[in-house]
Amino acid sequence: QVQLVESGGGLVQPGGSLRLACTVSRSIFSIYAMGWYRQAPGKQRESVATITSDGTTNYADSVKGRFTISRDNAKNTVYLQMNNLKAEDTAVYYCNGQSPANFLVYNWGQGTQVTVSS
Question: Which percentage of the chain shows pLDDT scores above 70?
Fold first, then answer.
């Protein structure tokens, strides 16, 4: 069974930065797209950013200009650089793969908690 391990979360003050990493236990080279998602308390999980195998990126409006997604196929790892963090970014962050038909590829990992607070 493929495992996803998210890391890099923590407590940060508003305006701060964090870099999340998601390492997959199997090659992601052929995965159509990899994405980061988040779920805040009492809310549904939402897509934050995606990156296709050719490097095309897409971001939720709420994070455009502040977050950057990247992938390193050689390391089977996807990153999310988060700058100028806001309180509303507080959530558990997860990664997953996407098929061309927008289906999720993997079972969810444990996620990594991001808390933005002064």
Answer: 100
Q: Where are the beta strands (DSSP E) in the chain?
A: 4-7, 10-12, 18-24, 33-39, 46-52, 57-59, 67-72, 77-82, 91-98, 112-116
Return the structure tokens found at 48: 């934050």
Specify which residues 47 forms β-bridges with: 37
Q: Of 21, 14, 9, nearest to 116 (Cα)?
A: 14
Task: Give CA separation, 102 vs 33, 34, 96, in Å.
Answer: 9, 11, 11
- pLDDT category, 29, cuts 50, 70, 90? confident
CA gap 2, 81 in Å, rounded: 24
Q: Is 8 exposed, middle or buried (0-12, 13-18, 19+ CB in 10 A)?
A: middle
Residue 74 φ then ψ, to 5°: -65, -30
Amino acid, res. 114: V
> Residue 30 above 90 pLDDT?
no
